[in-house]
From TrEMBL:
EC number, UniProt record: 3.1.3.1
Keyword Hydrolase among UniProt keywords: yes
Domain Phospholipase D N-terminal: 36-132
Keyword Disulfide bond: no
InterPro entries associated with the record: Metallo-depent_PP-like (IPR029052), PhoD-like_MPP (IPR018946), PhoD-like_sf (IPR038607), PhoD_N (IPR032093), Phospholipid_Metab_Enz (IPR052900)
Pfam family, one: PhoD
Stated name of the protein: Alkaline phosphatase D
Species per Swiss-Prot/TrEMBL record: uncultured Sphingopyxis sp
Ranges of residues in domain PhoD-like phosphatase metallophosphatase: 145-491
UniProt keyword terms in alphabetical order: Hydrolase
Gene Ontology molecular function terms on file: alkaline phosphatase activity
EC top class named in words: hydrolase
PANTHER family recorded: ALKALINE PHOSPHATASE FAMILY PROTEIN (AFU_ORTHOLOGUE AFUA_5G03860) (PTHR43606:SF2), PHOSPHATASE, PUTATIVE (AFU_ORTHOLOGUE AFUA_6G08710)-RELATED (PTHR43606)
Length: 522
């Protein structure tokens, strides 16, 4: 809680700018202002972004903060005890951005860990840690990083994040679905209704205040905070940051075979909701100012180069994509699947990707994105007569999918990293009977509940899709262990998410050998 008695007694904005030691005597806050933790993101060879948000009462309007700018001091040190502070400064936490702070730290040494912290009103945040990257093009022999996403607050606890925090990683790619925009009310695990393990504050999210509270509730999870304060994150978004299956400027939530939701807003109204959702996303992610929303749009796609070992292209498969064909869903293909003018990335982003892929210079070429690129037959029952596609994936857009695979055919060592599916699987990317790359699909942190080792019908799923090498329905994350000769993806799973603590195990490992397209399982 913000102590207004102390504030009115003399803590003017001028006074707040005084040295931290003086501010500590003022006792500005009655509650801890860094309740949502700290985070780092978008690492480079000379620095990274550090983030926090002042929210002494996170579930109250404006996080319990006054509607005024508030100074936040920050420090970056080469040691965890902050004896060697290498960078420091002060940023204003502004009410227009939910009193969030995004500091773009530069001038650091490459390929080494640093520690950071914040101070405001005499209160000090938890300590965070992040690594800088090797210099672009520098000889680099090894890299280990994580991939995660899809964390429905009501479906399960975030214990997988505590295990992720204990991993020795250079960074973590979060593919999206950081929040979910709806309450599940009831879960159906074994065909019978069960209560969610914990409840959202709101059943649906409409305006900026709603979205801010959703992120605040989510970030109150201490296991999520543990992962975010330990590793630098590459943050992305998928659909549930706004609405299920949205693309472009449309709310495309469908009602199965009945088509569009009759209550779905027109595009101009949906864009207002999208603008609020994207602002809240920015306010809570450790991303650079270049991703501040403009007109509801976020410049999400960007490139990360890790020495001369890996070039990673982070893609946006939502904002520029055409509407899903065949009224969306899981169903047989209709003529719209083969529309030659259809777009997934949009023309500008696709041209940007082609330019980056053409630069070369790295042993491994990675594409980090949201929806499955393999065109898989989703039938899990023998009586289903026709091939079933996930029309919210690349399988619903055959022309741009073939363009992408043709581009990967001209590369060596292409690996695609994907989420969205709430399950683990991996397989070969095939163009006209030729393997041109590999795709690893990472499971969810909690979405889908406890799950099981294999979904019903997994044997049929694998038999109908010979390119698939592995499928699993547990929660967790993946760790990519990359060197010059091989790319190994370890599928790390937890036994349950319906309890706060769980047990981690390595379920499987998929391997891509250098200059050999396709995956083999260890």
């Amino acid at each position: 809680m913000f102590d207004r008695r102390h504030f009115l007694a003399g803590a003017t904005l001028a006074g707040l700018a005084a040295p931290a030691i003086l501010r500590a005597e003022g006792g500005i806050f009655r509650e801890f202002p860094f309740s949502l933790g700290v985070a780092a993101g978008d690492p480079a060879s000379d620095g990274f972004v550090i983030w926090t948000r002042l929210a002494p009462e996170p579930m109250k309007r404006h996080g319990g903060m006054p509607l005024a700018n508030f100074p936040v001091d920050w420090e970056v040190a080469s040691d965890g005890g902050f004896r060697d502070v290498v960078a420091r400064g002060t940023e204003l936490a502004r009410p227009e951005l939910g009193h969030s702070v995004h500091v773009e730290v530069a001038g650091l040494q490459p390929d080494r860990p640093y520690f950071y912290r914040f101070t405001a009103g005499g209160e000090r945040s938890l300590r965070g840690r992040a690594r800088t990257l090797p210099r672009v093009g520098a000889p680099t022999d090894a890299l280990k990083f994580g991939v995660c996403g899809c964390q429905h607050f009501e479906s399960g606890f975030f214990g997988a994040y505590r295990h992720l925090a204990r991993e020795d990683l250079a960074f973590v790619y979060h593919y999206g679905d950081f929040i979910y925009e709806y309450s599940q009310d009831y879960l159906f695990d074994t065909g019978l209704p069960t209560r969610p393990v914990r409840k959202h504050a709101y059943r649906n999210l409409i305006d900026l205040g709603d979205f801010r509270l959703a992120y605040a509730q989510q970030l109150g999870d201490i296991d999520l905070q543990a992962a975010r304060c330990t590793h630098a994150f590459l943050s992305s978004f998928d659909d549930h940051e706004i609405r299920n299956d949205w693309v472009s400027d449309k709310d495309n939530w469908k009602l199965g075979l009945d088509g569009h939701d009759p209550d779905a807003p027109p595009p101009e109204v949906f864009m207002l909701k999208k603008q609020a959702a994207m602002q809240a996303w920015y306010e809570h992610m450790p991303v650079r100012r270049s991703m501040l929303p403009r007109g509801g749009m976020v410049a999400l796609n960007r490139e990360l180069r890790y020495g001369d070992l890996m070039a990673m292209q982070l893609l946006d498969t939502r904002q520029y994509r055409d509407d899903q064909p065949c009224e969306d869903g899981f169903k047989p293909a209709c003529p719209g699947v083969y529309d030659k003018n259809a777009q997934v990335l949009g023309k500008a982003q696709e041209a940007w990707l082609n330019r980056n892929l053409g630069e070369g210079g790295a042993t491994w070429n990675a594409l980090a994105q949201q929806v499955t690129m393999m065109s898989l037959d989703r039938r899990r029952r023998p009586e289903a007569p026709e091939k079933i596609l996930n029309l919210d994936s690349w399988a619903g857009y055959e022309a741009p999918r073939e363009r992408m695979l043709s581009r990967l055919e001209g590369l060596k060592n292409a690996v695609v990293l994907t989420g969205d599916e709430h399950q683990n699987f991996c397989g070969d990317l095939v163009l006209k009977n030729k393997v041109v790359g590999a795709e690893f699909v990472a499971t969810s942190i909690s979405s889908g509940g406890d799950g099981s080792d294999r979904r019903n019908g997994t044997d049929m799923f694998l038999s109908r899709n010979p390119e698939l090498k592995f499928a699993n329905d547990q929660r967790g994350y993946v760790v990519c262990d990359v060197n010059r000769e091989a790319w190994q993806t370890h599928f790390m799973v937890v036994d349950k998410v319906t309890t706060p603590t769980n047990t981690l195990s390595k379920r499987a490992t998929g391997i891509v050998e250098r200059d050999v397209a396709g995956i083999r399982m260890a």
